[in-house]
Amino acid sequence: xxxxxxxxxxxxxxxxxxxxxxxxxxxxxxxxxxxxxxxxxxxxxxxxxxxxxxxxxxxxxxxxxxxxxxxxxxxxxxxxxxxxxxxxxxxxxxxxxxxxxxxxxxxxxxxxxxxxxxxxxxxxxxxxxxxxxxxxxxxxxxxxxxxxxxxxxxxxxxxxxxxxxxxxxxxxxxxxxxxxxxxxxxxxxxxxxxxxxxxxxxxxxxxxxxxxxxxxxxxxxxxxxxxxxxxxxxxxxxxxxxxxxxxxxxxxxxxxxxxxxxxxxxx
Length: 267
Ligand SMILES: NC(=O)C1=CN([C@@H]2O[C@H](COP(=O)(O)OP(=O)(O)OC[C@H]3O[C@@H](n4cnc5c(N)ncnc54)[C@H](OP(=O)(O)O)[C@@H]3O)[C@@H](O)[C@H]2O)C=CC1
Ligand SMILES: O=C(O)[C@@H]1CCC=N1
Known about the structure:
51% of the residues lie in helices and 13% in strands. The protein is α/β, with parallel strands linked by helices.
């Protein structure tokens, strides 16, 4: 399969590397379109078939076109891409907010898969939810699914409308986790630990706790209860969280992310 990637930043290249790892695409079968000169410099080492800064008619000879520029840059991309895109090509967008309809109208092109991955895709441990327009044929969709699955797990959505919520939950989700980990490490430092010790304590706690969620056969409430002894330290911490309205703040943040995804779709 020949793949063109427009916007070769964090996510575009996480996808490219995952496809290579599973031998789904050969290096020479990539066309990379990247505007940033600095970023382009680093892409030489990837040794793609073609590395360019602009969209040219050559892109029309690729089976799949991945759109991985920031949503704010999309309309500029669309203006050139619509001149050269071919009816047989599939478009896979991973851009937050930009709806399938906007992509179809701006490119005058119907077969579109819209997906929302997250950064653990860099390790093949991402989660991607995706939806497809009816014009994507079954065989084409299967090929796209194989590619997405090289980046981790995936969920097919019948309703594209859910993608903004996915963006708020799992698309942005890694940053919420990193924020929590960073805050805990900072608290460790305030209590007198060196950063390396605080980091080890927190990282291993998160790792072990994640595996408990998956393997302990207990609900999250039961897992919390098993840590929080009556009248003990965890109860004191949880009370502090309640008083600080931590759950409300997290929920509000996630809703704000969903709202922002919807705003991005409106340009
Ligand atoms: N990062 C994440 O966690 C996730 C991101 N996404 C989505 O993926 C997309 C990419 O995100 P991310 O990889 O983080 O962003 P990056 O900024 O890392 O990558 C985008 C790249 O596209 C380049 N670019 C901008 N305009 C053009 C153009 N006209 N032609 C070619 N290249 C261009 C940018 O250059 P320059 O920097 O000069 O503008 C940049 O290097 C976004 O739409 C985002 O919503 C989806 C899920 C998760
Ligand atoms: O912050 C953003 O807009 C993108 C979409 C999901 C993660 N990063």
